[in-house]
Amino acid sequence: ILNYDIMARFRRRTCIILLLFILFICSIMMALKTLRPDRAGFGDPFGLGLLPELQERTVHLDNKQNSLNRVQGDTVTHVNNLHSIAVNTMKASMPPVNKLEEELSSPNYNFHIFYYSWFGNPQFDGKYIHWNHPLLPHWDPKIANNYPKGRHNPPEDIGANFYPELGSYSSKDPSVIEAHMKQMRAASTGVIVLSWYPPGMADENGEPTDDLVPVILDYAHKYNLKYFPNGKFCINDTCLLYRYGSHPAFYRHKTSTGRLLPMFYVYDSYVTIPEIWANLLTVSGSQTIRNTPYDALFIALLVEERHKHDIQRSGFDGMYTYFATNGFSYGSSHHNWASLKAFCDSNNLMFIPSVGPGYIDTSIRPWNNHNTRNRVNGKYYETAFSAALLVRPEIISITSFNEWHEGTQIEKAVPKRTGQVVYLDYKPHKPNVYLELTQKWSEKYRKEQEQWLM
Topology with regard to the membrane (predicted)? Predict the structure, then answer.
């Protein structure tokens, strides 16, 4: 009986220890997942739902011949997907005040940062824009029924998981624009990639913002920053180059041949078939813009692995990955960057990896916890930078300065609790921690680039 009691106590103790060990291992695995998630491809249902254009790809390919026939007289109408122009922080003709130069870090023109000017509030816009973002339903009605519907109600309830230090601001507010430029310059970024649509056009939750471009250019000029757009762009309109191309803050990239060319990040480039792009972007294309006044560097979005071959065939000058969610797509997965860089090197293409501080969009996609990436007090961001530097890219892009809906912002955020809502924050660090981390890695990148070139 004594031996039986001893063995029973031993088994209980063993089970308790084993249970605690399992819980410890599970917690460690969850923490590691935020830094390096499983090698999930883009085929998971959450990914496909966030980029439904991929589901349409088969339709585009099936109708390939019809598209080619139609495009001969109307190629340009298919190319309204150019998604980015940039604003670089190269020195402007009129230098800024000396005090600014003393206080702020020097700009790194190989650090490009995505910037959004689609926010509005009653004071400057007559109403809230984008801060009142609707809750997006899941594509499966059965799942959608389990989640709330409606819109956010600013200023206390906004469409974001973090809360900006500047509050629910308007992108038209001059004091906000200046604060943003100062923050980006303090972070030692050099090129502002502005989300842009042609005049009269806007995203489905916003309003036209083209009239803001001259103002942003002027403030970028003041802070020695440069600009290029990231949005819808019509080649036959060429309004950007005509209206803003001569501004000293309009970004032009120096190529290996010594040419200075504008640069465009092309979002959703994979939606249009390569043959249509090739008409515009290859020298032999029937409507080529190469070696014309409209020539530029065109950087395509790479999501799936096969897109790299489409990008090459299309005549693009390079590729970028955009998404700040490691493991969300093939392109955004850090462990694929080395092979993508090798492919680009062997095909005379630029590879621009996109790094981000984390990802959370459950304020607008409440069903999308699957793609959340915890910031881990800045460690996630630094892991992304480290992965990018390993492949020695010519340019690194940052997602993002202020995409608050998807929680990728490095703009200053503050703790806030209101009613039922408790916003995330950057504690135990200060609101500017991600600006400081960006500046730190900008300097590290600059020094390592010097070593690469030796």
Answer: Single-pass type II membrane protein
